[in-house]
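Now for today's protein:

——
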Amino acid sequence: NLAEHRSDLLSKGERVCRLLKEIYETTYDIHKSLGTVPAAIKQDVQMQLQFLVDEKFPSSVPDTWLWEYPRYLKALKLRLEKALFSRQKEDENINIISELHTQYADLLKIKPGSLPEFHWLIQELRVSLFAQALGTKKSISAKKLAKLIEQARLGDIH
């Protein structure tokens, strides 16, 4: 009943409000810092932010992933700080992610609804590629994601 859980509800609501405030402020800071980065990096970061904070945010985000946002956004900030000094690595990582997105789009054409958590796994991969020191929720690599796509294509997983 509501009376029994009122204090829990209030503290959880406050935690969510602090989280959302942090997400919006960090996203704003990232957008402001994009003016100084090369076009390819800017485009990739904007695409990532459009996924993370879309027009339905936060209701479009599963609760388990919402609590990962501070790490994703911190990884983005670290990436932007290093971007100008590691341009070749940036380009390689952008290509890796782009290729995985293409493979996933191809999979969805033949098997709609496959791998519903794929975009979240891409966020984990981004942390691994651009800000490895922050750690990932689980072990992740481009090879593992490509293998998941192939298994889904073959019907071994959904």
In short: The helical segments are 2-33, 39-52, 63-66, 69-82, 87-110, 118-130, 142-154. The chain is about 70% helix and 0% strand. The radius of gyration is 17 Å.
